Amino acid sequence: MDDYLKQTILTYNDQADQYAKKTTKYTPAPERDTFISLLPPKAKILEAGCGSRRDSAFFVSHGFSVVGFDLSNKLIEIAKKQVPQAAFHVMDLRNISVQEKFDGIWACASLLHLKRDEFPAVLKRFHKLLTSGGILFLLMKEGKGEKIVNSASMANKPRFFTYVTKEEINMLLTDAGFTVDRIVPWDQQDRQTERPSEMWLSCFARKV
Q: Rounded to whole angstroms, how far apart are CA atoms 170 and 182?
């Protein structure tokens, strides 16, 4: 594992219990509702970077079949205990070994932990894993550049982030073979007033 990613996973492992509790406050509810509205009943969902199970639990509760994976073994341990109805694996976004096809892929704030030049191969793998008409959701941080961030919310421990513009992620998705349905920018402070202002991009794309 590259050093930048190793640092990030060590942080998630170290903060797994606290992170699992904290993320329930920051649920991307509008995006989840939109995502499931675009899927057929009892669809198969791949959660790429599932964390501790927050969104997997939601999908299971709505009758969907879920496979989730994450590189943090501590978060996967929590997910397995909390949502036994789903299948969880410790796996790298850059080496997804599942062979089945999915109606939807939910990659919520996970791709952004990779370097920019790693995005195209991962997006092409997502495209291959989707059924015809399948839906991809990405949540990305809006901006430019790549950097290590030591945030107070994670005990000032390091995590790596890559920031993208709306135009850039649109081009990356198109180049990977997707049709982009919508890319919506939003400020996290508008949803949780106690959080600092930071812009995100909610991206919905389709395999056609």
A: 9
